Amino acid sequence: MAQFDTIVIGSGPGGYVTAVRSAQLGLKTLVVEKDTVGGRCLNYACIPAKAVLRSADVLHEIRRADEFGLQVQGVSVDFAAVQQRRKDVISQLTGGVAGLLKKNGVDYLSGEASLAGGGDVTVGGETHTAKHIILAAGSVRRAIPGVEYGGRVIGTEEAWALDELPGSIAVVGAGASGTEIASAYARLGANVQLFEFLDRVLPSEDVDISRVANREFKKQGIDVHVSTKVADVQTTDDEVTFTFQKGDGDKVDGRADWLVIATGRAPDVEALGLDVAGVKTDEKTGLIQVDGRLRTSVKGIWAIGDLVPGPALAHKSSDEGVIAVEDAKGLDTHPISYVDIPRATFCQPNVGSFGLTEAQAKEQGHDVVVGKVPYGAVGGATVYGESGTIKIVGEKKYGELLGGHIVGAKATEMIQELVNAKALEGGYAEVARTIHGHPTLSEGVMEAARAADGWLIHG
Ligand SMILES: Cc1cc2nc3c(=O)[nH]c(=O)nc-3n(C[C@H](O)[C@H](O)[C@H](O)COP(=O)(O)OP(=O)(O)OC[C@H]3O[C@@H](n4cnc5c(N)ncnc54)[C@H](O)[C@@H]3O)c2cc1C
User: Is the residue at 126 inside a domain?
Assistant: First the structure.
């Protein structure tokens, strides 16, 4: 039996960041991982997805080369090389995580960890003890009613690791993961159908953002079906057949080489021994119940990331890990404003957002002001050949930033400015009067803020 101050279960962006912070605080720390260092984010999810998307983005740029006076001939996709690059990116970054753990003196143990009551954790028949246990076990794919995984029915992680470029792919769920898969494969050359049960793509984004994204997806050749239910899924060795039905309309037969379920995830709690330790979960969602400092119902045990409520995002998991371990150490740590966590979707066009949509802000009774500009309002967009929309949702009374919504090139980067402004207690009037470099796309953010403040200059 080995004795630690902190045992972290899981080595994803939640677990490894927690472990490094724990070690920085002078705590003797162990990370236990049942699969591969770096967790799902680095090995199967965020990072591989973005690596393949990057290939699609480069191809997209090359195809537009003539707009910039360049003639490029003989462009083709070497999908094996795309996938090799994905693997190389993963191994470089997971190697980096292993290095960070080592550099910070964190012990690493390979194996499946279970809570054994008190401060005990069992791994492969051995028991280790800690004063603080932090659960960072992440999430697993979830099926949809009536559809089982297997054969040609796959989850989002598998979708990024296909050996061959599919001729056709059907994606169920047009949220962040589904639209990323659809937009990558469509641009790489597959026939893509995208199905969404709700009435628009990216249904949790502001409606103006969904509208622009939908238009651009169609331009990429994606066959988009909203308000549509997929059922009767049958898989063989080489194809999957299904039906799809829009509202109360007729059922239509569909087929694809692969059907990807991209409708959400469930916490990976099965092996954790939550019952043994007495850690309470939410009956409906299965998520672990925590307070604002990520403390579970059991003293000495914290839970973070995809295991607990809030958006299932890597950066949310990392931040929660920092809070949890600082709380364990007895520090006065920072609270999270969950609605203000930036949301980044790397489909084409990029989508970056935070805070409330215009509809949510109105529903909540705010005196809403909106500043909305096209990318073309500022010179940079024309110079770089980019289009899109920037929308700021504010509260009139104090000039508060309630939300930011950007669709277009670099939206996932540009949204951060508004997140930071809000975190530093700035409103749209402050963003409107902050000098931005020229010619940049982010000048458009300043113009949207000026529009909200009633003095749009360019537009
Ligand atoms: C396809 C896809 C793309 C995504 N893209 C993005 C993105 O671009 N940006 C973003 O912010 N988020 C993205 N996400 C969400 C993101 O992957 C998760 O929010 C993030 O991985 C959560 O981090 P985590 O550390 O909590 O868990 P994970 O990354 O899931 O890591 C948990 C680790 O715990 C291990 N584990 C589980 N149980 C045990 C046990 N009992 N013992 C030992 N080890 C255990 C698992 O093996 C795993 O390695 C994406 C998700 C998917 C599926």
Answer: yes
Ligand 1 atom at minimum distance from 136 CA: 26
Strands lying side by side in the sheet with 168-172: 153-155, 258-261, 168-172, 191-195, 223-225
Q: 203 with 174: CB under 8 angstroms?
A: yes
Mapped onto helix, strand or coil, the DSSP state of residue 232 is: strand
Whether 248 and 270 share a structural domain: no
Strands 301-303, 191-195: pairing kind: unpaired
Task: Please give the Cα distance from 370 to 393 (Å, whole number).
Answer: 5
Q: What is the CATH number of the domain that holds 25?
A: 3.50.50.60
| 243 vs 444: CA distance, rounded Å | 43
| Residue 412: both structure tokens together | 């996932």
57's tokens: 């983005």
**Do residues 257 and 202 both lie within one domain?**
yes
Q: Would you place residue 143 in the very low, low, confident or very high pLDDT band (cuts 50, 70, 90)?
A: confident
Q: Are 380 and 440 contacting, i.e. CB atoms less than 8 angstroms apart?
A: yes
Cα 292 to chain centroid distance, Å, stands at 22
What distance in Å separates the CA atoms of residue 397 and residue 215, rounded to the nearest whole number? 35
132 & 207 share domain: no
Last residue within a domain, chosen from 290, 313, 338: 338
Among the listed residues 22, 35, 20, the one whose alpha carbon sits nearest the alpha carbon of residue 133: 22
Q: What is the CATH number of the domain that holds 430?
A: 3.30.390.30
Q: How far apart are the C-alpha atoms of 302 and 290, rounded to whole Å?
A: 8
At 34, is the pLDDT very low, low, confident or very high (cuts 50, 70, 90)? very high
Q: Does the beta carbon of 52 sit less than 6 angstroms from any atom of ligand 1?
A: no
What domain range is 421 assigned to? Answer: 349-453
Is the minimum distance from the CB of 158 to ligand 1 under 6 angstroms?
Answer: no
The best mutation among 11, 46, 89, 354 to test binding of ligand 1, ranked by most ligand atoms within 8 Å of the C-beta, falls on 46
13 lines ligand 1 (CB under 6 A): yes
Paired tokens of 364: 């909540």
145 within a domain of the structure (yes/no): no
What are the tens digits of pLDDT across the range 37-87? Answer: 999 999 999 999 999 999 999 999 999 999 999 999 999 999 999 999 999
**Does 147 fall in a domain?**
no
Nearest-10 Cα torsion for 88, 91, 303, 318: -70
Q: How many helices (H) and strands (E) does the chain have?
A: 14, 22
Given a cut of 90, whether residue 384 has pLDDT beyond it is yes
The pLDDT of residue 459 is 81
